[in-house]
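Folds vary. Our protein:
___
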Amino acid sequence: MTTNTQDLHTSPAAPAPAKPPKRPDLSNRRLLIWVAGLVLAVAGYLIAKPFLPAPWQRPGTEILQPVAALGAVLLLAPFLFSLGKRGGHSQIPNRLFILHVGASLAGMFLVSLHAAAAFSGPPLVLVACLALLAVTGVVARVYLAPRMAATFGRKSAPFQAGDPALKAKLRALIDAKTALLARLDPQASEALFSPTLRHFLTTPLKSLAYARLARKEARLMGARQSVSWLQAWWRPLHMALAWLFLAGLILHVVLVTFFAGYVADGRDIYWWHLAAW
């Protein structure tokens, strides 16, 4: 009896189960408050702008050019967050989403200060892209998110008796995906697998081939046709706007930095630049 008691006292205690990391949440109400705050801040700046000193009246001044640069960096942050999320490097994707939203709104405000000094020319396309990005993002979170959640388990078409020819095509497609997945990621399950950034970097050809098969399967299943057009196309639209904005931002920075003479078109080049081509 004594030995048993001693063993109980000397045996190491079982490790406590690890607590899952806390998942922060950005509620719809808070998101709308943040967006409303951005709108009010921009509106307040536009009202106050005529009364501000000269450096606030032109977009490339010693004040507004650094402001625009900081805003551009903040607007590029969501691309990095997306890479982290798609690459599987974050245990808490919600945190990346909140950083995505916060950096985007702060960047939009700073870029708005820069753009408001001269609402003209091609840069207006970038402002329009930013506005549409904000609208599509808010609509997706506030209006579409509950509908997308309700979609799971409620799409009746995939559970109905299908055309035998369609079944044969799907069977062949799934077999092809399974065979390819065995070479791409042997530990993964075909029913749950989706290529991540790691797969595209390490095995780009196999990953692209698998993504093509997955898109073909979605078309055969009628995935987009089973939901509303807004639910089916908001994300492609949001991503297209994001890449269009990125391309326009890079072009704008290159032009004002290296082709200042072309941008000025005979006017005074008053902003910082490296070349006046």
Observations:
- Residues 126 and 245 are 6 Å apart (CA to CA).
